[in-house]
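Quick sanity check, Type III pantothenate kinase:
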Amino acid sequence: MILTIDVGNTSTACGLFEDDECVLRFRRATDINSSSDEIGIFLRSALRENGYDWQKIQKIGCCSVVPAVNHSLSRACVKYLGHEPLFIQAGIKTGLKLRYSNPKEIGADLIAAAMGAVAEYPDKNLIIIDMGTAITAELVSKNKEFLGGIIMPGLKISVDALAGGTANLTSVEIMKPEHVYGSSTTEAIQAGLYYGTAGAVKEFCYLFKKNVFHGEDTVIIGTGGFARSFEDYKLFDEIIPGLVLAGVKKALELN
């Protein structure tokens, strides 16, 4: 079995693979103050409570955008699961041609998502939209070239910014509103966030298809915690929740 771990700013997702199938996904809140013991006990417990033997794990791969967690996570994997994890970072084999001014600046999550997407759709132009704490879009050509992308505030960041930067607006639940406008302040914020985000993503994808891929066939993949919220809006050709975890598995195979 292979364990993959995706450490995000808000939560840490884990995926357990048997052969090519992800048989288990579980997560916990990301806490930079967590000790290696806390992380290790969580991992062992989550596996055990779901009926899997941690001793059957053969490899562990990690993707982290929170450097402060990496040391404790690495020690937890060694102490509690018996394996030194592979972290996605500069210098590992990715199978991608990184057309970036400074490849070391590319987030590990972006690399992993691109690797997972290319494995799913080889020989296709790809637009990968990750709707997490931040919203990112990355472009990968049919020749496996990582071209770059965009980064913009995610839904939760936007909600927090409105609540923290104004006197009369409060934090609201992030959800698709019933109408395209609000008849209350809460509904107005929800409509602005939901349709504003959808419009931005839609416009970026239009521009990418037109100006980067020049009208060629392009697959738009959605991933991240809020991707499913936009399923009815038809922003994506496919939503793959565990895309980063699949990419981490691919990195283990290549390295």
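Posting the structure with no commentary besides this: The chain is about 35% helix and 25% strand.
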